[in-house]
């Protein structure tokens, strides 16, 4: 994409103007305020925005609905590729607006997410090992059928929808110093960074086995990275989006890498202490704190996006 940073930027004014149109269709997810000492951490103020309570179980509903609100959809409908959550969101949005949807997911997509896509009535195609395989197949179908593609992260409309997470968070927790955000393709962190635009510290969080933004920042441009690990169905697109990269260079202070064990431990803590059932990608930002990879200062006011909850890991039969 040969575009300048200026042409890619989504401004606070644009986000603010669009939000009244979107908020009729999404939930304003709650923020829970706790002290870090509750989790055996430094006694700092924590604000957890529970975006896993959004329609479809993740923030992805915002971007999917934004696409259908702002683009002309042909009779053949929409097509999307997804590790899981975006596919669920597009299927939900398509049902809401009564348009056909065809969703491509890789074999690593979790059963919880695949079942939700089917449940919303979308046509589901499973194939390939990773998100990049599903994306290639979806692009072929778009060219063949005329369906409009709804990209999971590297599309302006998608990022505009995700940016509203930042708008809400600032309204709910206006005094934050630092915000921890999980990174896959970068639609969420790019949107949130567009909203805050340097007003607070933004820290990206990635799995060690899917370091898409880390590798891009090292290289000076998006490059292919490993695409595996415990969060492969949500945080492993192979490379970060072209739209996100200049925003990350400008507004993301640094990116932290976490092991699968550290992410799994954060999931367990969220469930044990707060009864929050987060999927691995949804718990990744919180894991930056519980692992000690991010060490807040005593007076720091921390924001954490718990961004997804599409998991069947909790055993309710016990």
Choose one word for the global shape: globular
SS summary, helix count? 12
The percent range for helix content is 40-55%
What is the mean predicted local confidence, pLDDT? Answer: 90
The beta-strand count equals 10
Q: Could you tell me how far the N terminus lies from the C terminus, measured between alpha carbons in angstroms? A: 51 Å
| Category by helix and strand content | alpha/beta
In short:
The chain is α/β, with parallel strands linked by helices and 318 residues long.
Detailed description of the structure:
The chain has helices at residues 5-8, 12-22, 60-70, 85-96, 111-119, 131-145, 156-172, 187-196, 212-219, 244-251, 260-274, 280-290, and strands at 31-35, 45-50, 78-81, 101-105, 123-126, 148-149, 178-182, 201-207, 252-258, 301-306. The chain has 318 residues and is α/β, with parallel strands linked by helices. It is 41% helix and 16% strand. The longest helix is centred in the middle third of the chain and has 17 residues, at 156-172. The strands form 2 sheets. A 6-stranded mixed β-sheet has the order 1-2-10-7-8-9, sandwiched between helices. The radius of gyration is 18 Å and the shape is globular. The model is unreliable at 1-6 (pLDDT under 50). Helix 3 crosses helix 4 (85-96), helix 4 runs parallel beside helix 5 (111-119) and helix 7 (156-172) crosses helix 8 (187-196). Helix 4 (85-96) links the parallel strand 3 (78-81) and strand 4 (101-105). It has 2 domains: 5-59 and 155-306, 3-Layer(aba) Sandwich (Rossmann fold), CATH 3.40.50.1100; 60-149, Rossmann fold.
